[in-house]
Design goal:
318 residues, alpha/beta, TIM Barrel, seven-stranded parallel β-sheet, two-stranded antiparallel ribbon, 9 strands, binds coproporphyrinogen III
Length: 318
């Protein structure tokens, strides 16, 4: 949930002289940035990288434009472009990510979470060219050209599957799969156009034995579908009450979540109250990973982050 990032002065300092992609491609610096937030006492580190990194070696170059987020240089509009996308070998095409994992494993005293974007969320960036309000172009292809959609999702799934396996082989102790924008789909469309691909990836990655966290935003109507697609742990966004979500998912799976990241923008007491709400909803059951329900915002006061970590440790100590 952007554990490392712009809310930290140390990160902003590094960003003064380097782009986000330069940081990701320089293992020593990506390692340093991954370690920065651990001073707050988090129980795990999340690899510093981005879900879009595999797109470049696949043949879809992009940049992070100032104030705009990601921009894909040539968004996918044709079947021919889909057929040209390469199924990469992560060892060859993303060696810097795997080197960062290896460096981190030498330094870390807490587990390391690796991650990748899920195929729908990656496809949405490839097709929309960046962020989108309604995913109209993505859905036009999905509904209007199902064969092209299947080809694109098949290619992305194979890349994500290989990439996650490579991260586990390099030393990642757990994996998070971000299907951030899948909450924009109706359950029937999730079942038809997304589930088979995510299922194939997660079934394979789970044979490695590492826990897999399956996360999306706005997924209140999709929790059962996401559970069926796979994941040791289902990530729950901040709009869905965690107790209801867990009951629906089933207590044989873990849950992660789900404090509203914007509650960190108010006073320390408000932040702690929201953290406690997530803990109360989890009811002290084993299998709850306390986390934010989505990404931390750059405006977040670091003292509130510190206070919430301390509170969660005290309140959940067994
Ligand atoms: O959490 C961490 O510390 C690990 C690093 C991490 C980043 N991106 C670095 C990053 C992780 C886990 C991601 C995942 C990611 N990237 C997702 C899935 C998670 C989610 O938020 O739903 C998505 C959709 C992306 C794509 C992406 N990267 C967007 C839309 C943006 C722009 C966001 C913004 O607020 O401007 C990014 C940039 C990005 N990736 C930042 C960070 C720390 C912003 C900081 C910067 O520009 O230096």
């Amino acid at each position: 949930m952007r554990q490392a990032g712009r809310y930290m002065a140390e990160y902003r300092k590094i960003r003064e002289t380097r782009t986000l992609i330069e940081i990701c491609k320089t293992p020593e610096i990506a390692t340093e940035v991954t370690l920065q937030p651990l001073k707050f006492g988090f129980d795990a580190a999340i690899l510093f990288a981005d879900i879009l990194l595999p797109l470049e070696p696949m043949g879809a170059s992009f940049e992070f434009a100032k104030g705009e987020g990601p921009v894909i240089h040539e968004p996918v509009v044709s079947r021919a472009q889909i057929d040209r996308l390469r199924v990469i070998d992560p060892e060859e095409s993303l060696p810097y990510v795997l080197s960062t994992i290896k460096l981190l494993k030498r330094e870390l005293e807490v587990p390391l979470i690796g991650f990748a974007g899920a195929p729908f969320t990656l496809a949405s960036y490839l097709i929309e060219g960046g962020k989108s309000a309604n995913f109209a172009k993505t859905k036009r292809l999905m509904f209007g050209a199902p064969d092209a959609w299947a080809a694109l999702m098949t290619t992305l799934s194979e890349v994500v599957r290989r990439y996650l396996r490579a991260q586990v082989a390099a030393g990642a102790d757990a994996i998070q799969v971000f299907d951030s924008w899948v909450g924009d789909l109706a359950p029937a469309d999730y079942a038809e156009f997304v589930h088979p691909y995510v299922h194939r990836i997660l079934a394979d990655v789970q044979t490695t034995g590492v826990p897999v966290i399956h996360f999306g935003v706005g997924t209140s109507t999709l929790l059962e579908s996401m559970r069926d697609a796979g994941g040791t742990v289902i990530g729950v966004d901040f709009c869905t009450p965690l107790d209801e979500a867990w009951k629906r998912i089933g207590y044989d799976r873990g849950v992660q979540g789900n404090m509203d990241p914007c509650a960190l923008l108010a006073t320390r007491d408000v932040a702690i109250r929201h953290a406690q709400r997530a803990l109360d909803a989890a009811g002290n059951r084993p299998g709850h990973i306390f986390n934010l329900g989505h990404g931390i915002t750059p405006e977040t006061p670091v003292d509130n982050v510190k206070a919430v970590v301390e509170h969660v440790h005290q309140a959940s100590a067994r």
